[in-house]
Specification:
This protein is an alpha/beta fold. It is built from 12 helices and 8 strands. Strands 3-2-1-4-5-6-7-8 form an 8-stranded mixed beta sheet, with helices on both faces. InterPro entries: 3-OHacyl-CoA_DH (IPR022694), 3-OHacyl-CoA_DH_NAD-bd (IPR006176), 3HC_DH_C (IPR006108), 6-PGluconate_DH-like_C_sf (IPR008927), 6PGD_dom2 (IPR013328), NAD(P)-bd_dom_sf (IPR036291).
Amino acid sequence: MEVKKIAVIGSGTMGRGIAYSAALSGFEVTLQDISAEALEKAKNDNGSLANNSVEKGYITSEERDNVQRNITYTTELQKAVEHADLVIEAILEIMELKIDTFKKVEEFAPEHAILATNTSTMSPTEIGAQMKKPDQFVAMHFFNPVHRMKLIEIIRGMDTSDKTVEIIRQVSEKMGKETVEVNEFPGFVTSRMNLIIGNEAMNMLMEGVASAEDIDKAIKLGLNHPMGPFEMADLVGLDSRLRNMESLYHALGEKYRPSPLLVKYVKAGRLGRKSGQGIYTYK
């Protein structure tokens, strides 16, 4: 099966990034969200990203026009998925919410459609078990910012077919991404490593080992990471980071216990870039 039409469910940072990258690669994309306001923000952000990319020479003006032409924005789930070859969900990391969303998607999506969850910790086996065709269910773990990050983790559920994995690999390659195939286990590969680093950074900040700026600088210049752990946490959202830590803590034990400082920041509403204040303050 050749994937031509992709539906992306959820227009937050990851959803709109996936939609942008897919549209830039020539796919017909429908981006759906229950919030018209969120969709308008996603449309404006993708437009700004495309324009800035032209100014910096990353893409041509023709590619920018293709991005704008290839993405349709809608609040209607049926309209988004009824002709889709691939549906990618990018909503909150809450298992019950994901399962409920995919059950609704199944009502309207074509029989041949592949269903994929963009998740960093959730079990594709558990979600797929609730689907009519678990062999056509898989996890695609994109990385933020999607248009720049080259990796997609493809995570098999227990019933995911080889055909489904191969289709997802082909789609990923068309989007200009490299892939790794992961057999499902809590946290997969990258999240297990990234969460440990980020949580230890929070503990070091709490203990007064160094400032947030110096910890980020040390990791970037000393370990050659493109972003420091606090920059990354603010980008993905401290609330999302906490949910992921709690998920792995329950699955894998004590070493993933969330830092008390992370819990405190989330309780204070300091969620990162999206709230204007996290570890750092943003205009």
